[in-house]
Amino acid sequence: SEEQGAVYRHMSDVREVPFYVLLGEPGMGKSTVLRYEAQLAGVDVLTARTISGGTEQYPSPLIIDALDEYRMEGNRSDKAHTLANGMKSARVSRWRLSCRAEDWRKAADIAAITAAAGGQYILVIQLLPLDYEEAKQLLTAFGELDPKGFLKKAASFGAEAFTENPLILKLLHKAVSKSGVWPASRFDLFQS
């Protein structure tokens, strides 16, 4: 979080924050987090392209995924403003928005969406890479019987970075568990 260096360990720590932007690298779980939060709130996750700027009303919290994907269509420069107009017209008391970290234009995007927050503070949250314990927990959830051994083997191939991203960890586990045997070389690991 950029709020005076505040550190939030869990999404539940920010659940009551009225307005936040959730940033993360591809595969870090932004959409998964938003789906979970939407389920808890009893609302749907909408894509950024769904919010048209019209007068349609949405329940609160308004949960919007994929500003970055919305920007890929048409004129990229006006996308945050168009989205902000839609968010503002929805007149909700709380909203959440996700964007890939590398596509977030800090000052420009905050300036565009500030009106949708009624001028209130917008918390910007960065999803961090998985730590060792979190990677072990995910591997267990994926059905891995020896998560410590799996992580040790991944480290021996120089593939620690693969264990820090939930989606890539899942793909790595799937590739290895499919054959039941780790590849013979680092090159073979990347191939699989």
What does the model show?
It is a single chain. With 192 residues, the protein is an alpha/beta fold. It contains 8 helices and 5 strands; from the N terminus they run βαββααβαβαααα. Helix 3 (79-90) runs parallel beside helix 4. The longest helix is centred in the last third of the chain and has 14 residues, at 166-179. The protein starts with 18 loop residues before the first strand and ends with a helix. The model has no long low-confidence stretch (mean pLDDT 87).
Largest sheet: 5 strands, parallel
* Record field, number of beta strands: 5
Amino- and carboxy-terminal Cα gap = 36 Å
Average of the residue pLDDT scores: 87
Helix content: 40-55%
- Low-confidence spans: pLDDT under 50, at least 5 residues? none
Considering the chains and any ligands shown, give keywords for the structure.
12% strand; elongated; 5-stranded parallel sheet; single chain; 40% helix; 192 residues; alpha/beta; 5 strands
Quick synopsis:
The protein is of the alpha/beta class. It is built from eight helices and five strands; from the N terminus they run E-H-E-E-H-H-E-H-E-H-H-H-H. The radius of gyration is 19 Å and the shape is elongated.
